Amino acid sequence: MAKEKEQKQPMAPFGQWAPAVALGWLVPGGGHFLLKRHGRGALLAGAITSMFVCGLMMQGAMFQPQTGDLLTTVINTGGFLGDVCAGVLYLLSVWFGYDVQDMPGHVHDYGTKFLVAAGLLNLLAMVDAYEIASGRKD
Amino acid sequence: MPKMNLSHFEAAFLFSLFTSVVLGVVTKRTDRDRLHYGAYTFVCFLIALFGLGWLMYFGHG
User: Fold this and answer.
1) What pLDDT is stored for residue A6 in this prediction?
2) In terms of C-beta density within 10 A (0-12 exposed, 13-18 middle, 19 or more buried), how is residue A134 classed?
3) CA of B31 to nearest chain A CA: how many angstroms apart?
4) Which of A34, A76, A83, B23 has its CA 20 to 30 A from that of A28?
5) What SS3 string covers chain B?
6) Phi, psi of A77 (to 5 degrees)
7) Distance between CA B49 and CA B15 in Å, rounded?
8) What is the mean pLDDT of residues A91-105?
9) Which residues of A touch B10 (CB under 8 A)?
């Protein structure tokens, strides 16, 4: 019984889930709206956007991919990917010239984490949109 | 862009709130479970926040 549950389900066709995941990346909660889960989409959009905006208002820094020693690479490249996962929020902030360098102070430090965490939460929302679109979840 | 100047507690509180909402929404399968899980994670965040805060306070002596 347990083995049956552990069996991997076949991946749904690309066209079935790609629009929801892509829109979910671009607009937080957008994938859920596309899939007619308006309540959940609104909650996700509100929480992720609020977190990102709080990060901007705290003057958090955006990560830039860097190479060097392992820790530098992991932190900066991982942080950059986290920032990019916020979709249009990240793109708009960069296009409008948001460029705050890392500086000391707990508020800025929290701001940097808020920006990355908003992207990572959007990644969770994209995974949820994928599961809904592929019929694994209601 | 207006600047926001928060204390450690306020920033961690906001972080907990937003994260709990998302975790609640994406994790469970019914609205009731989502609400419970969101509230549960939020309370866990707050317990960890106060617990670690007091731990650091006593650790400093």
Assistant:
1) 60
2) middle
3) 9
4) A76
5) CCCCCCCHHHHHHHHHHHHHHHHHHHHCCCHHHHHHHHHHHHHHHHHHHHHHHHHHHHHHC
6) -70, -40
7) 11
8) 90
9) none
Burial readout A97-119 (b: 16 or more C-beta within 10 A, e: otherwise): ebebeeeeeebbbbbbbbbbbbb
- Residue A60: CB atoms within 10 A of its CB come to 25
Per-residue pLDDT tens over the stretch A19-70:
999 999 999 999 999 999 999 999 999 999 999 999 999 999 999 998 889 9
Q: Give me A64's structure tokens.
A: 């830039």
Predicted ipTM of the assembly: 0.92
pLDDT in tens, B6-60: 999 999 999 999 999 999 999 999 999 999 999 999 999 999 999 999 999 999 8
Q: Which residues contact B44 (CB under 8 A, 6 or more apart)?
A: none
Q: Are A17 and A34 in contact (CB under 8 A)?
A: no
Residues of A with Cβ-Cβ distance to B18 under 8 angstroms: 47-48, 50-51, 54, 117-118, 121
Closest-CA distance, A35 to chain B, in angstroms, reads 14
Contact residues, chain A, for B8 at CB < 8 Å: 106, 110
